[in-house]
Design goal:
With 129 residues, the chain is mainly β. The protein has one helix and nine strands.
């Protein structure tokens, strides 16, 4: 029975790949075949990052300052897109920048009732996201 299910899954996979844009994965078990579909992904075939699918920062800032993160998430500086592979790069480098792009340099960052410091901060690490 397992051999039949495996052969059936292989034949069905060949048909599905020709008739479907999504990537299909199969799980064969004694209970039957389970189909898993992966769609709307990114194969990174372009030289530029697709900003419709990917963000380079959190919507609420360029660092998780309430968690005392040490890195600053850059916009375009810390990733490489080449040959279908996206590499996120972390660097040990000092940068002074705003945590919240839309606030003034002296805006006080708060976590609940605790003041973390000014919006303009120094970071010892940069990272892609």
């Amino acid at each position: 029975m397992k051999i039949f299910l495996l052969l059936f899954a292989l034949a069905l996979a060949g048909w599905s790949f020709q008739n479907c844009n999504a990537q299909v994965m199969w799980q064969v078990s004694d209970d039957g075949i389970t189909n898993w579909y992966y769609s709307d992904g990114d194969e990174f075939i372009s030289e530029k990052l697709d900003r419709e699918k990917w963000l380079t920062t959190f919507p609420y800032g360029r660092s998780l300052y309430c968690n005392a993160e040490l890195e600053y998430y850059t916009d375009d500086k810390n990733f490489e897109l080449k040959n279908g592979v996206l590499k996120l790069i972390a660097k040990q480098e000092t940068i002074t920048a705003k945590v919240l792009d839309w606030e003034a340099d002296d805006h006080l960052l708060k976590c609940e009732d605790r003041v973390i410091g000014p919006n303009l901060q120094s970071f010892n690490y940069t990272s892609g996201m």
